[in-house]
UniProtKB/TrEMBL annotation:
Source organism: Azospirillum palustre
Identification of the protein by name: ABC transporter ATP-binding protein
Matches recorded under CDD domains: ABC_DR_subfamily_A
MF (Gene Ontology): ATP binding; ATP hydrolysis activity
Keyword Nucleotide-binding in annotation: yes
All residue ranges annotated as the ABC transporter domain in the record: 6-234
Key words, A-Z: ATP-binding, Nucleotide-binding, Transport
Length: 310
């Protein structure tokens, strides 16, 4: 028995001349939330379709919840998988309740659990009686999430789940994701909104032109990328040059708006630089200090540049 919820081994998927997925290895452990990022056409949706068993690999092997997701014998396995597709299309003349009941019957899940699902995703009783054609984008996405949660999935694929949602709705969406993960659901989340993934995902997988080019926790990717750390100081303008000249040895200095100066240094030099700043005679004039780690956006750009160079 495998310990992984999903295991992708050496998988390639070709559509005619197009190699959508190229030699990808990927594992998803129970209760892990993994973010998959990549440009348009990087192969993210193709990989999800393979793990859903909607398509089969041209080469390689996929095991999901202990079986081959594409085999006819594995329909009980597919019932334990939830999927929120990138473009959700519900029938506009059905109400929210009719829609969820319809998908529950398709999945063999009991309709009696649907009220609890509506409550979980925050769809009010008045809303579930309305036709889907009257729904806002946020309401449709809540209904789509309820559909993905039918039957209590062990493995959940969310393809661009927060696109077009306002910040409050995004937050409530990620709160639901965190709760599911804490209860042991394995989640694979695709998004272009990299900033919002920070703090949500245990691991980040970077895809580029069908290949997996990076895979690790944010801390691991940071240490692999070796991007500079920035130390931001707020201090009177007249102090910037003197302080920078005394403590900023080996650090690149950038002036930002509002009397803020940024010193960029290698991660290993960070503690030494902070110590020099704290011991400097003008430290008393520093109104604020902030240490800014490389963002996921910056690391993503780094891994794509490295791939292009190779
Ligand atoms: N059914 C298909 N037939 C032919 N080519 C396909 C098919 N599905 C995907 N592709 C191609 O495979 C490549 C990867 O597409 P895929 O949809 O997996 O990318 P993606 O990373 O999900 O992109 P996006 O972020 O835009 O959704 C693209 O070049 C796409 O045109």
């Amino acid at each position: 028995m495998t310990d992984f919820t999903a295991e992708v081994q050496g998988v390639t998927k070709r559509y005619g001349e197009t190699e959508a997925v190229r030699g990808v290895d990927l594992t998803l452990a129970p209760g892990e939330c993994v973010a998959m990022v990549g440009h348009n056409g990087a192969g993210k949706s193709s990989l999800i379709k393979l793990m859903l068993g909607l398509t089969t690999p041209t080469e390689g092997r996929i095991r999901v919840l202990g079986g081959d997701p594409a085999s006819a014998a594995c329909s009980p396995i597919r019932r334990r998988i939830g999927f929120l597709p990138e473009n959700v299309a519900f029938h506009p003349s059905m109400t929210g309740r009719e829609t969820l009941d319809f998908y529950a019957r398709l999945k063999g899940a009991p309709c009696r659990d649907n009220d609890a699902l509506f409550e979980k995703v925050g769809l009010e009783p008045a809303a579930i009686r309305r036709r889907v054609s009257t729904y806002s984008k946020g309401m449709r996405q809540r209904l789509a999430l309820a559909q993905a949660l039918l039957g209590g999935p062990k493995l959940l694929f969310l393809d661009e789940p927060t696109t077009g949602l306002d910040p409050a709705l995004r937050q409530s969406f990620y709160a639901i994701v965190a709760e599911l993960r804490d209860r042991g659901t394995t989640i694979l989340l695709c998004s272009h909104a990299l900033t919002e993934l920070e703090g949500q995902a245990d691991r980040v997988v970077v895809m580029n032109r069908g290949r997996k080019v990076a895979d690790g926790s944010l801390a691991t990717l940071r240490s692999l990328a070796q991007l500079p750390v920035r130390i931001r100081l707020t201090l009177p303008t007249g102090e910037i040059d003197t302080l920078a000249a005394r403590v900023g040895e080996g650090a690149a200095l950038t002036r930002l708006a509002g009397g803020v100066v940024e010193l960029a240094c290698a991660n290993d030099d960070k503690v030494g630089l902070v110590r020099r700043i704290a011991c400097d005679g003008s430290a008393a004039n520093i109104a604020d200090i902030e240490i800014v780690q490389p963002s996921l956006d910056e690391m993503y750009a780094h891994f794509l540049r490295r791939e292009a160079a190779e």
